[in-house]
Amino acid sequence: NAGVTQTPKFQVLKTGQSMTLQCAQDMNHEYMSWYRQDPGMGLRLIHYSVGAGITDQGEVPNGYNVSRSTTEDFPLRLLSAAPSQTSVYFCASSPGRPGDTQYFGPGTRLTVL
Amino acid sequence: DQQVKQNSPSLSVQEGRISILNCDYTNSMFDYFLWYKKYPAEGPTFLISISSIKDKNEDGRFTVFLNKSAKHLSLHIVPSQPGDSAVYFCAAIPWVTSYDKVIFGPGTSLSVIP
Questions:
Q1: Which residues of A touch B2 (CB under 8 A)?
Q2: CB–CB contact A58 B99 (8 Å)
Q3: pLDDT one-digit tens code per residue, A61-110
Q4: How many whole angstroms from its chain centre is CA A103?
Q5: What's the pLDDT tens digit per position in B16-67?
Q6: DSSP state of B105
Q7: Which residues of A touch B36 (CB under 8 A)?
Q8: A101 touches chain B (CB under 8 A)
């Protein structure tokens, strides 16, 4: 099993550009989530999904969109990148609710100029 | 305002000694707590958890203590090893009201000195 994979590992964008961060898991987990990690802030939940076709907002959803068309994939879309979105992004999955162990991907480091 | 606080950004401990990482929370609705460990350039990995119905949970060298009245939990690592050097995140879930959301603290960077 590859676990949770994220692409790309690094990305530089200009303000106003759009992009999609990819996340995939091969463990047949129902729950998936996106976090961003900023210095001194820990991990903050952006969006999450409890199953295919179901998504909801976390703590910091503004500026991001998600969809969950399959169990395996949970892409995160930045519609119009802003410098405030410079961060490290982590995708995670768990078999059930997040009280179960969450398995994190290796992260995507995004810089918005 | 942060609901989960880890007031020590960093901690240094000698190999073989005890490491104590602290975490405080403000939301009395939190009733499930987790610790995650993160190495540089990797995603966090689950370490240990505790439910609010318990005050202690052990897993090998790792023990988590929960003091609900003080809204405080701590992670003890005994004995500390150089491989334990990492950032440790405390996290909490308000299981009854919003069991899909995990709130993380800012993390404590632990350095275990050989």
A1: 42
A2: no
A3: 999 999 999 999 999 999 999 999 999 999 999 987 766 789 999 999 99
A4: 12
A5: 999 999 999 998 889 899 999 999 989 999 999 999 999 999 999 999 999 9
A6: -
A7: 102
A8: yes
Look-up: residue for tokens 């995004």?
A110
Residue A33: closest CA among A15, A58, A53, A14:
A58
- And the tokens for A26? 């091969």
Chain A residue whose CA is closest to B106: A42
Closest approach of B19 to chain A, Cα-based (Å): 20
| Minimal CA separation from B81 to chain A, in Å | 24
Binding-face residues of B in 57-86 toward A, CB within 8 A: none
Which is nearest to A104 in space by CA: B28, B44, B99?
Answer: B44
d(CA A60, CA A46): 5
Q: For residues B25 and B4, is the Cβ–Cβ distance under 8 A?
A: yes
Hey, which residues does B35 pair with through a beta bridge? B48, B90
Please report where in the chains the tokens 């609900």 appear, as a residue: B68
Contacts of B28 (CB under 8 A, 6+ apart): B71
- Terminal Cα-to-Cα distance of chain B (whole angstroms): 37
B114 near A CB under 8 A? no
- According to DSSP, residue A68 is labeled -
The 10s digit of each residue's pLDDT in B59-107 is: 999 999 999 999 999 999 999 999 999 999 999 998 766 667 888 999 9
Give pLDDT, residue A49.
Answer: 93
